[in-house]
Amino acid sequence: MDGLDSTQLRTLAAVVSEGSFEAAGRLLHVTPSAVSQRIKALEETVGQVLVRRQRPCDATEAGRPLLRLAGQLALLEREALADARGPLGGDPGRTRVAVVVNADSLATWFPAALARLPARPELSFDIRQDDQDHTAELLRDGVVTAAVTAQREAVQGCRVRPLGAMRYRALAAPSLADRWFADGLTPAAAGAAPVVVFDRKDQIQHRFLRTLTGRTLDPPVHYVPSVPAFNESIQLGLGWGLVAERIADADLAAGNCVDIAPGRVLDVPLYWQHWRLDSQVLNALTAAVCAVAADSLR
Amino acid sequence: MDGLDSTQLRTLAAVVSEGSFEAAGRLLHVTPSAVSQRIKALEETVGQVLVRRQRPCDATEAGRPLLRLAGQLALLEREALADARGPLGGDPGRTRVAVVVNADSLATWFPAALARLPARPELSFDIRQDDQDHTAELLRDGVVTAAVTAQREAVQGCRVRPLGAMRYRALAAPSLADRWFADGLTPAAAGAAPVVVFDRKDQIQHRFLRTLTGRTLDPPVHYVPSVPAFNESIQLGLGWGLVAERIADADLAAGNCVDIAPGRVLDVPLYWQHWRLDSQVLNALTAAVCAVAADSLR
């Protein structure tokens, strides 16, 4: 085998990141049919189907290692080119850094880490949002370069650093707390009172109830997958829910909500996982994320 | 044909809403193998593959009309049962109302509509978030019962009502505005200045630039798919972006941001589309959504 064609690898990455052959073609300034030919050629070289042709397109099991390789090559190539050309060497093209972040980190401390990097017009952040227990999948699949994740074990080819814990408090509107939790968070009340959950991947409310009551409860659930809407739904009395400390403390101070389990919290330890790459952008982002997390997490 | 089996239809809905045979089994209190047998039996009755077996599971083209039918039957069945049994008739089971809402509506006015409905322990909201130009797909596919959408044409089987327009202003941090827009939002500046975009489906920034400059521009983009993180990224100077009026006016008043296109706004008309069903819950939700939107949109 003659090694892999870098244009074909770039095309694979574009198809998966943009979701279709048409969109990848627009990004690469070629026709969808050229995109299709490159993917087919790469699949013939490897002897495996690499792209699942659906909307959006996805990498197959066999395609994932190649997708990660494509991302790593692109980042290193850009930086080598920029170094070789020097500061006056003209446009080295854009460097896209893809990072997946859990919703509560993204809504609170994470943007400050992005803003710490010196503004460089060629640098584009491609932030994704996912549950902290699922962020490592996108890293393993090569869709992102780094992740804020609850997974402590290093994904293959990645380095991992602890960031501290995100602390959650159980909040409810005073009216909901009066109706359901006048006698505290008893198993009977917790099994019957409505709870606001971010989405189907979000297990922390149920985990918190299991820790508190020793039982697996099945309360009525409202799914509200938006941090501000989640928070407002709790304030408006739709259900109780676990709210990240920074937002919870503001709600408690304003009197919008009460803590229905005073003195009981849920701590979710978070980690920064990133590809083992000697990349300037990645090193700078790692330093910024660790510094901001140190100020924001426990 | 003997008509469709309602248990099989319910199982199809559970597989798609929960994403896997295992999770559907947990919801329905049966084994994954029982789920699989029911889906196969339904597929044999219809003579089509109905479920794409992947993670998460999805309905095929042929499965979608059946999915919608399953959702409609479930809603009507619950209400008929509750009516038949009367207010003391015991637990009629839970009614899940699935609604897709665009991110900016969800982060601003939509939760107040949910809170207007009288609290009923058997009612569960299953809110989804998607781009306003894509929300109608989930409605057509039968995944949701109603949508806040930018699509004005009624989806087949649905009723549509105008809700008013969400108004957006182009904001940037003062530092970013000084650096790039000292001479206003010229085509040269708009093509070079970094812009914050919600996700790949979000086209409004590019549409706004096209309207203003008459050109299709390709500025550097940061994707930040979280309303609070999007807003904070703009405040921190990562890029400019279009911010929903209610949030924008607070940012402008606080002096965190400046309007880089004073007097120019983007209005996105929104519509409430819902299945044509004589359902009490859906009627109550429609009245609440229309009332809150009338106060919040233009």
From TrEMBL, chains A, B:
Q: Which UniProt keywords apply?
A: Activator, DNA-binding, Transcription, Transcription regulation
**Coiled-coil regions listed in the entry:** none
Membrane-crossing residue ranges in chain numbering: none
Recorded GO MF terms: DNA binding; DNA-binding transcription factor activity
Give start and end of each HTH lysR-type domain: 4-60
Question: Entry's SUPFAM superfamilies?
Answer: Periplasmic binding protein-like II, Winged helix' DNA-binding domain
Classification via InterPro entries = ArgP, LTTR, LysR_HTH_N, LysR_subst-bd, WH-like_DNA-bd_sf, WH_DNA-bd_sf
Family, according to the entry, reads as follows:
Belongs to the LysR transcriptional regulatory family.
User: What protein does this entry describe?
Assistant: LysR family transcriptional regulator ArgP
* Classification of source organism: Bacteria, Bacillati, Actinomycetota, Actinomycetes, Micromonosporales
